[in-house]
Amino acid sequence: MQEVFDNPDIGGDKRPLFSLSSLNPNDAWLYGQIADVDGVGLVFSLEDQRVDTGSDGDYQDVIFKLTGATGKAVLLEEVINPAKDWTTSEGGKKFIDSLKPNLQKNTPPQDLQFDLKAIYQTGEAIELTSGKVIDGNGAIDLARIDFSLQKAGSQQTNLEGTTNFTADSQGFATFSYSLPALAAGTYELKAIAYDKAGATSNTVIKSFTVKEATVTPTPTPPTPTPPTPTPPTNTAPKNLQFDVLPAYKIGEQIIFTGGKVYDADGVDNLEKVEFYRMKEGGEWVKLINAENFIADSQGWGTFSYSLSDLSAGNYEVKAIAHDKAGDTSETVIKSFIVNETTTPTPTPPTPTPPTPTPPTPTPANQSPEKLQFSLPVTYKPNEAIQLTSTRVFDANGADNLAKVDFWLQKEGGEWTDISDATSFTPDSADDRWATFNYTLNGLDAGKYKLRGIAYDKSGAASDEAFSTLLVNSAPGNLQFRTLPLYTKGEKISFSGAKVFDSEGVGDIAKVDFWFQKEGGEKIEIANDVTEFTTDSNGFGRFKFSESLSALAPGRYQLSAIAYDKSGGASQVASEKFALISDPGEDGLSDEVRLAIVGAANIDSYPPEALAETKEWVVWLTPGQSSQELAARIGAIDRGDTGHIPNTFIWEFPEGINPKEVAAQLATIGGVEYAYPQVPVSLRLLHESKDKLYSTYQWNLKNANLPAAWDIINPATSQTVRGRGVTIGIVDDGLEYKHPDLASRYNPNLSWDFSDKR
């Protein structure tokens, strides 16, 4: 033990299975000796036999857990012997769960808020103000806020969100966000906050309008010609509205009532109202426009519209008003259902009772009607789901409404009575109409139907209104690994990559990959990964291969996003790598690639040794002049390294900051890679105890004779190390008492033919 302690780099059978003498997790002998059990760097398993000489690969002999730190090692699932995989057993799973830390209960973000102006001019930057959100676990628990933008009449577009938050004195996390200048039109900006556990806040939707900027012409110097008048500013249509009943029967004409829209420039400025229809599960279908408008006494443009010949099902109708300048109103969406026709059961005639004495007239109660609400098609699990376009009509007045009773049904399940809406806001123009707010929370992934019935204070009920929604969990935990260095013409290939989808591997549609050069644009990869297999942990495993021949030398990253069949997307996963052009005839082994990349990491060197380093190894594109390129940044070319083609040694002035050198080299075309020549102290793994070695044999060239014993066993694909093998030597003189041989000499199998007869 003392010998190992005094010589931490000792080799042979005395070499430790695990040692902290090296801080480099990529040391070849460490790879696979220790494995990460839980995948988060907290629980590790130590294989009790040397993996480089063959082991049973069970990884169940020594298991330890870190606290207050995290470690880095190869994942256990990548090296464990499948026949001895204890992690998939019931006991193994319980054991791993018992080692996991007790995490603080996560509280979803809430009270997301921000402000926008109602109107902007084209070319004007759109800045969000008073942006803030609260997280019960602190601002540090917030991951991001996702934004999406939808222009009236167009598809929703996902924007780059924000990940920067500042805690204020009241516990809120404040944020800033801005949109680029937008074209004229009406927009909706949607925002959702996420914490690091994936929980979501309330959804915030803000509407605003971008108008064409009014350009005032430059005044013409006074002439007899009258000045050109300033062109009038166009005002977009607004307050588009119409009503439909919540339910119809097959064959019944669907007549829109109360159709009107306001244009401050007059009814004559209105051009059309565009209509679209979508049946549940289908796409939006363009319908004919409403183009005839009649001015009412208050300056509104009224119009009529109807639909007919619709089959049974749930429908949505979308409308947008346009004026002659091309400006548009807000988008209005209405929902209704077309039911199958049923033949009513005949009711026997009721005898006519005698006419009573007329009582004092009492206003008759009328049932609520025209209950309406809308939902976007897709949400994420646990996202706050807000109903939009909510309305209900009561001829006796909005104050006669008692509640809207909601029921929810998950696909394959039963209807469940959920909370009611009990607060109503009368319409300022007609107090028989009322709006209400309603939010669904805590829904798991799946397809749902929402049913609503309005009741008044007398218990009278409206017809039922329906809407459907999909709660979808986007793929997550996308993982893959690449080498850090490739040469031009190679393929970047890997297997065993994985992604998780809580709806199952069958819900994963594709993984989209792309390259991106450092400081450059995305380079799309034509073929997506679309084939996945399920592993024992429910992950979708896949392979990837793409040629690098079309890429120029430089530093890149390979990025990917996984998509499910509902369009949900994972977070971006990326791996960085460098691409060089000429590796030489023998190519580069994986060990050399790792060594080159490790040498280029200037943060891994002791600061004192790095500061004293003046020489750098640079890798040049074939055909480039090393002397000319070195002179360009004040360095001296000291010639080629003599090892790998197109590699040279450059000397820089004493005292120059190494990070400045790295930054300068990165800007020079023709320099593909570089790393500093920091001196490294070499120590023999084993030094002979023979005193004559250091005195008389120091000059002998190392012929690398141990490499002659690197023999691969074809049956096991493992290197033969000679354990249990006896070597016979026939020689006319052997000093078997030599310190290097004495412990290994076997007298029972030895014979001296010279001295013994």
What does this structure look like?
With 757 residues, the protein is mainly beta. The chain has 6 domains: 2-99, no CATH class; 110-211, Sandwich (Immunoglobulin-like), CATH 2.60.40; 238-339, SOR catalytic domain (Immunoglobulin-like); 369-471, Immunoglobulins (Immunoglobulin-like), CATH 2.60.40.10; 476-580, SOR catalytic domain (Immunoglobulin-like, Sandwich), CATH 2.60.40.730; 590-676, Alpha-Beta Plaits (2-Layer Sandwich). The protein has 8 helices and 51 strands. The protein has a 5-stranded mixed β-sheet, with no helix packed on it. Strands 16, 18, 21, 22 and 23 form a 5-stranded antiparallel β-sheet that branches. A 5-stranded mixed β-sheet has the order 17-25-24-19-20, with no helix packed on it.
Summary keywords:
mainly beta; 5-stranded antiparallel β-sheet; Immunoglobulin-like; 6 domains; 757 residues; 5-stranded mixed β-sheet; single chain
Structural class: mainly beta
Low-confidence stretches: 21-29
Number of helices, counting only DSSP H or I runs of 4 residues or more: 8
Number of domains: 6
**Strand portion, in percent?**
35-45%
Please list the strands of the largest sheet in the order they lie side by side: 6-15-14-9-10
According to CATH, the homologous superfamily of the largest domain is SOR catalytic domain
- Note the main sheet: 5 strands, mixed
End-to-end C-alpha gap: 43 Å
What would you say the CATH architecture of the largest domain is?
Sandwich
**Percentage of helical residues?**
under 10%
Query: Mean of residue pLDDT?
Result: 83
> In one word, what is the shape?
elongated
Q: Care to count the β-strands?
A: 51
The fold-level CATH name of the largest domain is: Immunoglobulin-like
Radius of gyration of CA atoms, rounded to a whole number: 38 Å
CATH class of the largest domain: Mainly Beta
